[in-house]
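2024-03-11 09:14:02 DEBUG pipeline.ingest accepted 1 chain
2024-03-11 09:14:02 DEBUG pipeline.ingest length=486
2024-03-11 09:14:03 DEBUG pipeline.predict start
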Amino acid sequence: MSSYFTDLAQQYIDGEWRPGTGSWDIIDFNPYDGEKLAAITIATVDEIDQAYRAAARAQKEWAAAGPFARRAVLEKVLRLVEEREQELTELIIAELGGTHLKAAFELHLAKEFLREAVALTLRAEDRILASPIPGKENRVYRVPVGVVGVISPFNFPFLLSLKSAAPALALGNAVVLKPHQDTPVAGGSAIAKLFEDAGLPAGVLNVVITDIAEIGDAFLEHPVPKVISFTGSDKIGRHVATICAQQFKRTVLELGGNSALVVLDDADIDYAVDAAVFSRYVHQGQVCMAANRVLVDRSVADEFTEKFVAKVRSLKAGDPRDPRTLIGPVINSSQAEAISGTVDQALAQGATALLRGRTTGNLVEPSVLTDVPADSDLLRQEVFGPVAFLIPFDGEEEAVRLVNDTPYGLSGAVHTGDVGRGVRFAQRVDTGMFHVNDGTVHDEPVVPFGGEKNSGVGRLNGETTLDAFTTLKWISVQHGRSEFPF
């Protein structure tokens, strides 16, 4: 695993590994023990330009190579991920504080999405459409957009970089990937190495490790990329959308969430507790789909609360290298302070701590809060950490109102003994995704993934990926002779 940090702590541009030319380094730390993993000299605006120019040069030949050649490269990447799974597990644990369980979850999904990308190479079908004009043939071609810029987050960096980059490449595009500065290897250079070893031609995938303090909006404003795929906060996403709209670029924005898991009066309480604890605390709550709010019908609230708090109390927090650990560190000290500040703010507003976790360095133990005032902004914003808000409600009407009382609309879940009731409930919720009798944290390669309201624009996965990373071109052929009015 250490070779990832000694060999890959560089930029990858036009098939070459090289340091950036910036005047400072990004320091890659282990968030649990503070160990310095790597120092990476940042890329400048000039390197952003070089990466995009390399991508533009390489893309046409990559597209012309055809779907079967592209499929062969992606199949090799999948095999390499399978062969290197232990090294990648150690990388996820070291660089982002993921537990063994989280690393296995991320790598399982990454392999599933690579399998879908392999299939996607053959799915960009052209069509012939009828014409009302005699002798005319309408051909509609689905073609690559050209170059795609991908900006990935720190929470699932390996998966979420691949989730955009792999299908974009499968469809004949070139990619410039900018990973989060806290996860430059798992989200960037490790992926470049996999594709390099799989035989991807130079320039088709480029990775630039940098910071907006150095490059500003250069990654977004560059004239080469036609689509920007961004995963991150809604605040940054709004800025990305604004800049790209000014440049007439398309965007795919997978943003934050404030999901609710709802427990109706006829739910299986023990099962709902298991689903809610996982949905809130997986990867320390650093998941956009996490159940920030757990809404429970008042008739079963006492039983649910007792069992929920007991289960949360049993979660082992500590060193993510220990296979028994379920709660590892959050990504950095700023996040740890923000999460602790959220708990303090809720308590100052009158909330009750049923469980108050300690914060030691970047290790934030789980908290469970109730009695948060109904008008508190905390109930309407994303909390990216291991803090759950338990909220009782009286009847379905109030539950629907509470679920929708947020500017976000990403995911959610409802638990009930009546599946039809659960589906009817889900249909009344303003989200892109909702799950009946399950958790809130799900992603599958063939179903549309995305949110409503402040949770994003566009969809990924399956057929929707075709719309994200290709464009349609109409070419008509007149086999006869058109008649013109003059």
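2024-03-11 09:14:41 DEBUG pipeline.report The mean pLDDT is 97.
2024-03-11 09:14:41 DEBUG pipeline.predict end
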